[in-house]
Amino acid sequence: MKSRASGNHASALREGAAEDGLVGRVHYRDPQAAWQLADYLLRLLEPHPGAWEQPAVVCIGTDRSTGDALGPLVGSQLARLAPQLRVYGTLDEPVHATNLAETLVRLARASPTFVLAIDACLGRAENVGSLTVRSGPLRPGTGVRKSLPAVGHAHIVGVVNVGGFMEYLVLQNTRLGIVWQMAQVIAAGVVHAAKQASELLHMRSRAFS
User: The domain 13-141+148-207: what is its CATH number?
Assistant: First the structure.
């Protein structure tokens, strides 16, 4: 039997492993971090006004590793705070390395207008706690040397700990308090962005009706 910390479930990124596409970066301790994330997301989607009509959020990770629990923590909060969003990956039903391909099949059948992916990331010590929004798909698993399918039209990654050595052990020994606070900020940012985008769509539909 595999332990609860089994590497089969790990899906964290390595900092800088994703395509460039940088939209913005903020530290989770910044008092305006959630609003800044929302602004980055809205800026990213400004040329595509219909993107938030049927959005989906894929929160990747597992509760079997503290550092890799960022995605499921965000997903559980979004499922509670933003029921209008189609959320994949919660503490109860995580999306990780072993079921990611199956989840993407379900996602394709749902035909969302926009897919936002969220994952944990390992990086340099000075960047721990930073939250980054990038355009383009997320490529999970690079932080633990796994090759997994790309996910999403854009993504948010949070640097939960220092990478470069014994990544599985680092993820398993990451402080839950930091990961929880980062998850709260990300969830709040996505909720703010979804609310503002919905209001903008409503205003545009009224203007053209």
Answer: 3.40.50.1450
Please choose, from the candidates 186, 195, 208, the residue with its C-alpha nearest in 3D space to the C-alpha of residue 37: 186
Cα separation values, 196 from 22, 70, 77, 136, Å? 22, 24, 18, 22
Tens digits of per-residue pLDDT, 37-89? Answer: 999 999 988 877 778 788 999 999 999 999 999 999 999 999 999 988 999 99
Distance CA 70, CA 157 (A): 9
| Paired tokens of 160 | 């939960």
CB-CB contact of 184 with 158 (8 Å): no
Would you kindly state where each structural domain of the chain is located, as residue ranges?
13-141+148-207
Which residues does 84 contact at the CB level (< 8 Å), separation at least 6?
194, 198
- The answer to whether residues 91 and 33 touch, using CB atoms and an 8 Å cutoff, is no
